[in-house]
Each structure stands twice: as C-alpha cells, then as structure tokens.
Design goal:
Structural class: alpha+beta
Distance between the termini: 66 Å
CATH superfamily of the largest domain: Jelly Rolls
Radius of gyration: 24 Å
Strand content: 15-25%
Largest sheet: 5 strands, antiparallel
CATH architecture of the largest domain: Sandwich
CATH topology of the largest domain: Jelly Rolls
Length: 333
C-alpha cells in the first residue's frame, strides 16, 4: 500500500532535494516555494506496482530514493524493460499532459521514496506561474530526447508525451515552428551558452511584406496559405540546431547558435530569394503576386553584449529593411 504524507519531508528538505533535480534546477528559491505544496510524498516497499499499462493516470512521479523499473507487455506475453528511474528522475507525465492511459507498467525495484504531482496541481501552477512552469517543461523536453531504447519500437511515457503534448505546448499549431513562449525561454538559454562559451549567436527577425494588404485583397485564407508556404522554406534553409519561432501573425524570429553575421546573412538572403519565388499568390490574378520578406539581423557579441540590446538591434535592423524598400536583409551594422 502507498504511504502518502506531506509531513514525511519538511519544506526545507524537499526544497533542497528539488534544487538538485534537473527539471527544477532553473527555478529560483521563490519559484520552488510556490510549487512545494503541490507535491505528495510516497513511501513504497520493493516490488510494488505503482501503475499498470492501460490504467487511467493523473499523476507524475519523481524518485527521491530507490529505483523504479518501467516495462511494457510484448505480443508473446513477456515483459520488456524499457527504463529504470533513479533519484532525481521523473516518469508518468504522459498521462498528466496527454490525458491518455498509462503506456507502461512501473514497479519499485527496492524500497523507494517518491514525490507525486497531480495533474490538477500542476495545471493550477501553470495557470498561476506560467513562466516557472514553462521552465520545468523545457527541461523535460531536453531530458526526453535521450530516453529511447535500442529497439526504437518501445517508448517510455516521457518520449510519447514528447511527441504529443510537449509539441503542442511549445509549437505553433499552424506552422509547426516553435511558439513565442518557447522562444522567450530558449533564447535566454542560448544566449547564456554563447556568453559562457565565447561563441557567436545571431538573431534574425522576419516580417512578411504587405501581409495585411494580402489579407484585405484576397481574404484571410490567402494569408494562411502564405504562412503555410513560407514555413517549410525557413526549415529547409536554416540548420536543425536553429530555433525557428512564429512570434506573431506574420512575424517570425530565428535564433542561430554558433552563427556569425556573415553566415547569418547568407541564410537569411537565401530565404529572401526562395520566398520571392513562391507562386502562392498567382492564382488570385491580383496586383500582389509575390511574397517577400523584410529581415533584421544582429549578432552577439558583434552588435550587442546583452540579450535585451541584441533583440533591440535586430528589431531596428528589421525596421531599416522596411524603410529601404522591403524584400531584403539588413544587419545591425
């Protein structure tokens, strides 16, 4: 039987533990204090099943001590172990974020202490403290990438969530690019990395030219088609490591790690050329027949020494691109 009690760990002890857990490490002490009441402490003996495949689930877990094995059932009836979780690891989050049945069975290997986080408590925290919650979810995103087993056929809870609810939380539904929330979080992470490692980082801000006129002349469906046409161009030309985000209706921001101004200009100009050749508007036989972009570019540390100034310099360059006639890329210098 589960033994659940919030008194099993005092707040100081719980807070000290969470500071060492990777997914909570970005939170400061005030943010941690806000989420502490959401946890329930569970003590469980060895070889006890926490949940089974197909069960309904509404809690995710974090291992404080001990270990938990995750298994799935094979067609021949045998069980296949896909992961073992130890102190600091989390599991079971798919059922919280995806509201789907449990995709695996989790069993304690030894006497284990766990933290339980109920979905209602997490979503309350998400509503009240969205920036803190996004930090947690972003760390989960990074961790799930390494949890595929060799067979590739079986996915743990977190990997399945990574292909579903995680994407919806951090991506723009229409284009599949990242959304503004993810951009605002990840750009800070990338800037700190560039700062710490002495590497360049380029920010490109992109607007679709005369987008309002396109909507007024041909209707909003035409505007949607334009956005759907340019997004694949961005993906083809930019690197997989670049962060491509839809910032607003027809506004996009790209973060290019390890990229200097010259390399950034090459890629941005390639986007200008390819977007210009898209035939999306031709079928309306109107005055507006081409899609074009205006782009502003700024690079750390060449154009700015801090992130706020870097974004401002890229925005100023974008404004200059529009003033100079659109359909072009302008660097901050």
């Amino acid at each position: 039987m589960f033994v659940k009690t919030n008194a099993a760990m005092c707040d100081d002890e719980l807070g000290s533990f969470l500071q060492k857990v990777d997914i909570f490490s970005p939170l400061d002490s005030d943010e941690l204090s806000r989420i502490l009441p959401s946890f329930t402490v569970i003590d469980e003996e060895a070889e006890q099943t926490l949940f089974r495949e197909g069960d309904e689930g509404n809690e995710m877990y974090i291992v404080v001590s001990g270990s938990v094995a995750t298994t799935v059932s094979l067609p021949d009836g045998t069980r296949f172990e896909i992961a073992t979780f130890g102190p600091g690891d989390f599991f079971g989050e798919m059922s919280v974020f995806e509201q789907a049945p449990r995709s695996a069975t989790c069993t304690t290997r030894e006497h284990s202490r766990l933290l339980s986080l109920h979905e209602r408590d997490f979503f309350t925290f998400l509503t009240q403290h969205s920036q803190s919650a996004i930090k947690i979810m972003y760390r989960m995103l990074n961790i799930t990438a390494g949890r595929l087993m060799n067979t590739g056929q079986f996915l743990s809870d977190m990997v399945q969530w990574g292909e579903g609810a995680r994407k919806r939380a951090i991506t723009d539904e229409m284009t599949g690019l990242f959304n503004r929330r993810f951009l605002d979080d990840s750009i800070e992470v990338q800037f700190r990395r560039a700062e710490n490692e002495g590497r360049p980082m380029t920010v490109v801000m992109v607007d679709l030219d005369r987008f309002r006129e396109i909507n007024e002349a041909y209707g909003h469906n035409a505007g949607d088609e334009v956005i759907l046409a340019v997004a694949p161009v961005f993906k083809r030309i930019m690197k997989p490591t670049d962060i491509l985000a839809r910032y607003g209706g027809d506004e996009f921001t790209f973060v290019l790690p390890d990229t200097d101004t010259e390399e950034g200009l090459i890629r941005a100009r390639a986007i200008c050329e390819e977007v210009r050749s898209l035939p999306v508007l031709e079928k309306w036989n109107g005055k507006l027949t081409r899609i074009t972009t205006s782009q502003g570019l700024a690079t750390y540390p060449r154009h700015a020494k801090d992130l706020k100034t870097l974004r401002e310099r890229a925005d100023q360059a974008l404004y200059q691109a529009k003033e100079q006639g659109r359909d072009r890329v302008v660097a901050a210098d």
